[in-house]
TrEMBL record:
Residues 143-235 form the Mandelate racemase/muconate lactonizing enzyme C-terminal domain. It is an enzyme of class 4 (lyase). Belongs to the mandelate racemase/muconate lactonizing enzyme family. MenC type 2 subfamily. GO terms for biological process: menaquinone biosynthetic process. Pfam families: MR_MLE_C (PF13378), MR_MLE_N (PF02746). Pathway: Quinol/quinone metabolism; menaquinone biosynthesis; Quinol/quinone metabolism; 1,4-dihydroxy-2-naphthoate biosynthesis; 1,4-dihydroxy-2-naphthoate from chorismate: step 4/7. Converts 2-succinyl-6-hydroxy-2,4-cyclohexadiene-1-carboxylate (SHCHC) to 2-succinylbenzoate (OSB). The lineage of its organism: Bacteria, Bacillati, Bacillota, Bacilli, Bacillales. HAMAP family: MenC_2. Its cofactor is a divalent metal cation. Coiled coil: none annotated. CDD domains: NAAAR. This is o-succinylbenzoate synthase. Keywords: Lyase, Magnesium, Menaquinone biosynthesis, Metal-binding.
Length: 368
């Protein structure tokens, strides 16, 4: 294939409810969508999961746009490529900027799956026809509100409840949740809000039988996490700290993590995500697919990735209607009793709702 045309759009979509993490609150989702066209006319779609501000990691939608326009698109346009794995090789001279790389790599995978007439899930080597999903719940105004929300999602059938924690919104919250929902699979995500000095506090979470604690310590750390894991019964799952197969290998060898959250954007694309998945499978480390409040396009890529065999824990890829009044794909992603049916159509398997895309677009630019 040869990519001959690319369009980048910046979209702004209003979240149904604000989403609060230890690092900030989202009320809208501002992000990039990339449409790539092959010389035979096949169109593929990718989404940048970078946020408007560099809170989760250093990338933003503007740094992604700059990297795409000035470096990544020029490297890719009009090059003959035979397999999407070649995209990450093409981008290897560019350091980091993983979310920018992943945006265009995702579109190439979509085109490749269509041209080989298979769903993206199969193109990746996935076999599941449905995937298990959980849900991630932000920090709330009160514990009562959180309990009510959790109750609703448990009744909807989500397979695992993840709650965001931060200093001051942790032990009491988890104690009440565990008492109220004794049999529900639960976990906590700190988004790097603690330091090793907080080990005594974090150790008290062991009492609540959590499936894991996600990224308790610094966003670039794998040393202190290894220390902390020795002190905790609860398995640590790394999110922010893992950007590549090499990071995963080092963290696993050090004992910093027992479970890995794979986010396609954070690791630079589906090819690297697959490599991390395969390494973890070979080393007894379960993985699950994280979320970045994606629109339907990113969500479709997450669904496809989750069909790989070592995604044995429910991910954060909840229903479209949990985030948006209207998504930009048809049909929307629907979770029923905690399962999402994997689409069987070629490519990402959902149709792009172009009218919806246009209605949320604030800036658009073409490249060829
Ligand atoms: O750490 O997994 C995270 C949302 C924004 C930034 C970081 C994270 C999250 C989530 C939500 O937990 C996942 C989702 O529902 O998409
Ligand atoms: Mg996380």
């Amino acid at each position: 294939m040869k990519i001959v045309n690319i369009t980048i759009r910046q979209l702004k979509m209003k979240l149904k409810d604000p989403f609060t993490t230890s690092f900030g609150t989202f009320t809208d989702r501002d992000f990039l969508v990339l449409e790539a066209q092959d010389q035979d006319g096949t169109i593929g779609w990718g989404e940048s999961v970078a946020f408007h501000s560099p809170w989760y990691n250093e990338e933003t939608l503007q740094t992604n746009w700059h990297m795409l326009e000035d470096f990544l698109i020029p490297l890719l346009l009009n090059k003959e490529i035979h397999h999407p794995d070649e995209v990450s090789e093409l981008f290897a001279p560019i350091r980091k900027n993983n979310m920018a790389k992943s945006t265009v790599e995702g579109a190439v995978w979509d085109i490749y799956a269509q041209q080989t007439n298979q769903p993206l899930a199969s193109a990746l080597g996935g076999t599941r026809e449905k995937i298990e999903v959980g849900i991630s719940i932000g920090i709330q105004q009160s514990i009562e509100e959180l309990v009510e929300l959790v109750d609703g999602y448990v009744k909807e059938g989500y397979k695992r409840i993840k709650v965001k924690i931060k200093p001051g919104w942790d032990l009491e919250v988890m104690r009440i949740l565990r008492n109220t929902f004794p049999d529900v699979a639960m976990m906590a995500d700190a988004n790097s809000a603690y330091r090793l000095e907080d080990a005594e506090l974090l150790k008290q979470l062991d009492a609540f039988n959590l499936t894991m604690i996600e990224q308790p310590l610094a966003s670039d750390d794998i040393i202190d996490h290894a220390q902390l894991q020795k002190m905790l019964e609860t398995p640590i799952c790394l999110d922010e700290s893992i950007h590549s197969l090499e990071d995963a290998r080092k963290a696993v060898e050090l004992g910093s993590t027992k479970i890995i959250n794979i986010k396609i954007g954070r690791v630079g694309g589906l090819t690297e995500a697959k490599k991390i998945h395969d390494y973890c499978a070979a080393n007894g480390i379960p993985v699950w697919c994280g979320g970045m409040l994606e629109s339907g396009i990113g969500r479709a890529h997450n669904v496809a990735l989750t069909t790989l065999s070592n995604f044995t824990l429910p991910g954060d890829t909840a229903s479209s209607n949990r985030y948006w009044d209207k998504d930009i794909i048809k049909p929307e992603v629907v979770s029923k009793n905690g399962y999402i049916n994997v689409p069987q159509a070629a490519g990402i398997g959902y149709e792009i709702d172009r009218e919806a895309v246009e209605s949320f677009t604030v800036v658009k630019k073409h490249y060829k």
